[in-house]
Design goal:
By secondary structure, this protein is of the alpha/beta class. The chain folds into three domains: 3-82, Orthogonal Bundle (Arc Repressor Mutant, subunit A), CATH 1.10.10.10; 90-159 and 260-293, 3-Layer(aba) Sandwich (D-Maltodextrin-Binding Protein, domain 2); 161-257, D-Maltodextrin-Binding Protein, domain 2 (3-Layer(aba) Sandwich). It contains ten helices and 14 strands. A five-stranded mixed beta sheet has the order 4-3-5-14-6, covered by helices on one side. The longest helix is centred in the N-terminal third of the chain and has 24 residues, at 59-82.
Length: 297
């Protein structure tokens, strides 16, 4: 039985369909379909029930998926073992935030591709939380406070934030001085959200209100500079604007709790070496470039 057929079946099972698996594997849908046909023909059982919305595992497919995944993982580990020290191959699909992924994280991927010429790196930039398994990503970088999930996470660096406003907004409306006053101010934000602030040793949660919303941190920064409202933003997006006077840090007595940047990946026993190497490079990037994150202020 061909190992690529096994790995293709696992990809389809995890992604929930042929199209998603083809994107994850970087091959055409017809190739995926042929591999599935071969493996089902060899086993003599149906592993996937095709539907108009994708593919669902049959009872036999659910049992076979775990065995196939373990075999694929062992083969990947064996391949890593015999590669020259440090060499990487295959594909790495990474999801990154759009707000500062292209400027803050992309240089790490570029350097990784330079060091490993046999590695294919595919990156996607969006501020939405992608479904790593369904959309076929090996890992993602997420910034802020991690939501509860079954994903495995490794902290790669600190990302602090604060509440800011433009001088024009403060002149026209004043600035909140306590968490209770936040709801009386116009806020620019991502959507229906809560802000966490620290009051001594306790965490205070507030529900900001506002008419300008965007799913991108850079757009929120622009709106705050324009005076549309107060905003909670990471220092890596605001430190230059605070230095220039375009934004002012407010509510210094109630700072947001420390956040972070994390590399997250689907659950599994051992991360692939390409993910371990990317993680180490990201941690090193944070340590060498604190100015990018507003950590040297």
């Amino acid at each position: 039985m061909d190992i690529e057929d096994l790995q293709t079946f696992v990809a389809v099972a995890d992604a929930g369909g042929v199209s998603a698996a083809a994107r994850r594997l970087g091959i055409s849908k017809s190739i995926v379909s042929r591999r599935l046909f071969r493996i089902e023909a060899e086993l003599g059982v149906q592993l996937l029930a095709r539907t108009t919305r994708g593919a669902a595992l049959t009872e036999a497919g659910a049992l076979f998926r775990d065995h196939a995944a373990r075999v694929g993982a062992e083969i990947d580990l064996a391949r890593e073992t015999i590669l020259p020290e440090g060499a990487l191959r295959g594909r790495l699909r990474v999801a990154m935030p759009l707000s500062f992924g292209p400027t803050h994280f992309a240089p790490v991927l570029v350097e990784m591709a330079r060091r490993h010429p046999r590695l294919h790196i595919h990156s996607s930039y969006s501020d939405r939380f992608v479904d790593l398994i369904a959309e076929g990503f090996d890992c993602a970088i997420r910034v802020g406070y991690l939501q509860d999930s079954n994903l495995l996470a490794r902290r790669i660096g600190p990302v602090n934030g604060r509440i800011v406003a433009s001088p024009d907004y403060i002149k026209a409306h004043g600035a909140p001085e306590t968490p209770e006053e936040v709801v009386h101010h116009e806020a620019v934000m991502q959507g229906t959200e809560t802000w966490q602030l620290t009051d001594g040793g306790r965490i205070v949660t507030v529900q900001p209100q506002g008419r300008f919303k965007a799913d991108n941190g850079t757009a929120i920064t622009v709106a705050a500079i324009a005076g549309l409202g107060i905003a909670w933003l990471p220092d890596c997006l605001t430190h230059e604007h605070i230095a220039s006077g375009a934004l002012v840090a407010i509510m210094a007595g109630y700072p947001p709790p420390p956040a972070g940047a994390y590399l997250v990946r689907p659950p599994g026993q051992h991360p692939a070496r390409k993910i371990r190497i990317l993680t180490d490079m990201l941690i090193e990037h944070f340590e060498r470039n604190p100015q990018l994150w507003g950590l040297d202020r």
